[in-house]
């Protein structure tokens, strides 16, 4: 495939590095769903960065709130001061959570939220005298973060294998990808089928050794907006309860309103024991995330000597002021409803592309957490040949055209290439 040149502006060799040597143009400014590079080229942020900029860029209300907070204080170390923005954001966050999820622990990102959830779970088990519980079951594929604890429960070999000797191996069960297994996701038997894999794994491991099960209610980058089959979320909750296993929802990507409900799990009314959120919570205005837990989990830990965990930047007042403003924009502008409405329109347009393009194997997701998957054959769902590198080609072609989309190649087993189409929740029909 002939990829149009997409060269970054000529710049001297950088001292900065991320994952690769790839260079990107310098960002000049960003407003709502658009971003401009320093040469004036405009991009439609069709993936909200990495599903982060949920309320669009440079929202004046958030900027004003951050400016106002900056004039008062930008840091107060948690062991010396509590701050008004962190108190108010904790209260507001708890009010958005399911009944009983009332304790909020701030962090600076998704990996930190997940690490915090794992460590709270372990300390809870110790506090109630269940020292033998330490295994955390997760799904394959899945992505829960890049730090070694979060990586140990990530089901994605290309990212985890190099670090395997440095991590505790944790059990994995298959993600419920009914569309690949030829099962009907609307049939409750399908949800029961995949949930039974969790119960079998808990029993195989020995329930007394299993600490928690972690699941993204609606999948993010690893599964490409996978919506669980009918009955799955409820069945998983019941299984965890039955075996005394804590249920952790990783809402880092699907939380924050983009799926058409504030939390991904709100679509099924399932209440976990611990929730991790980030991305859309700070919406790109500040590094922000949170772990939210039931008081019955936090209480024994705090009473039993304290939570042995905390980040220096946790509860930063500037980040919390940004988070508060983000939540009030979401509320005032009815963005959760807009995500549902515009998401349904965008999904129907993507589905319409399946007719002329037989290599689109699946379109899935909820609200504005949407993805399509490319396959070699829609009947067998066989993936594109590895050599095709479709995930790079398509992302680069779109980028050259001024459209940002997000892709992940999932190379474990029989997997294809999927592309996330997740514009900010402020998107309109014209942007679709
Ligand atoms: N959990 C999920 C579901 C994610 O999608 C991500 C990031 O993509 C993370 C955790 C890690 O978040 P962060 O990159 O902010 O550390």
UniProtKB/TrEMBL annotation:
Q: Which CDD domains match?
A: OAT_like (cd00610)
Cite the SUPFAM superfamilies for this sequence: PLP-dependent transferases (SSF53383)
Query: Which cofactors must be present for this protein to function?
Result: pyridoxal 5'-phosphate
Keywords for the protein's UniProt record, in alphabetical order:
Aminotransferase, Pyridoxal phosphate, Transferase
Q: Which PROSITE patterns match?
A: AA_TRANSFER_CLASS_3 (PS00600)
Which GO MF terms are attached to this record? pyridoxal phosphate binding; transaminase activity
User: According to its UniProt record, which protein family does this protein belong to?
Assistant: Belongs to the class-III pyridoxal-phosphate-dependent aminotransferase family.
In Swiss-Prot or TrEMBL terms, this protein is called Aspartate aminotransferase family protein
Q: Which organism is it from?
A: Szabonella alba
């Amino acid at each position: 495939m002939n990829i149009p040149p997409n060269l970054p502006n000529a710049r001297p060799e950088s001292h900065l590095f991320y994952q690769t040597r790839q260079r990107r143009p310098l960002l000049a400014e960003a407003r709502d769903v658009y971003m401009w590079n320093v040469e004036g080229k405009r991009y439609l942020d069709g993936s909200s960065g990495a599903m982060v900029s949920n309320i669009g860029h440079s929202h004046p209300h958030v900027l004003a709130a951050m400016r106002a907070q900056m004039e008062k204080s930008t840091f107060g170390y948690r062991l010396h001061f509590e701050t008004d923005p962190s108190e108010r954001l904790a209260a507001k966050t708890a009010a958005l959570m399911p009944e009983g999820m009332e304790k909020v622990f701030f962090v600076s990102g998704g990996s930190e939220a997940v690490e915090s959830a794992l460590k709270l779970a372990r300390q809870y088990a110790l506090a109630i005298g269940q020292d033998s519980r330490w295994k955390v079951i997760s799904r394959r594929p899945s992505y829960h973060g890049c730090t070694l604890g979060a990586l140990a429960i990530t089901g994605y070999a290309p990212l985890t294998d190099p670090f395997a000797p440095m991590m505790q191996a944790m059990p994995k069960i298959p993600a419920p990808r009914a569309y690949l297994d030829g099962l009907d996701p609307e049939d409750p038997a399908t949800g029961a089928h995949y949930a039974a894999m969790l119960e079998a794994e808990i029993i195989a491991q020995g329930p007394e050794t299993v600490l928690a099960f972690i699941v993204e209610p609606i999948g993010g980058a690893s599964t490409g907006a996978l919506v669980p089959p009918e009955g799955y979320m409820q069945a998983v909750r019941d299984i965890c309860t039955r075996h005394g296993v804590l249920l952790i929802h990783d809402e880092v990507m699907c939380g924050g309103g983009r799926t058409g409900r504030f939390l991904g799990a709100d679509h099924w009314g399932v209440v976990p024991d611990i929730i991790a959120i980030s991305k859309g919570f700070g919406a790109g205005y500040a590094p922000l995330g949170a772990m939210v837990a039931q008081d019955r989990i936090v209480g024994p830990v705090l009473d039993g000597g304290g939570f042995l965990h905390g980040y220096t930047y946790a509860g930063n007042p500037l980040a919390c002021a940004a988070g508060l403003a983000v939540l009030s924009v979401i509320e005032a502008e009815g963005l959760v409803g807009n995500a549902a409405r515009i998401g349904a329109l965008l999904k129907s347009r993507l589905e319409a592309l399946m007719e002329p393009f037989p290599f689109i194997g699946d379109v899935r997701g909820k609200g504005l957490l949407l993805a399509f998957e490319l396959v070699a054959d829609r009947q067998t769902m066989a993936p594109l040949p590895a050599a095709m590198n479709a995930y790079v080609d398509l992302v680069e072609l779109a980028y050259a055209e001024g459209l940002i989309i997000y892709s992940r190649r999932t190379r474990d087993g029989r997997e294809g290439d999927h592309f996330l189409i997740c514009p900010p929740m402020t998107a309109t029909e014209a942007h679709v």
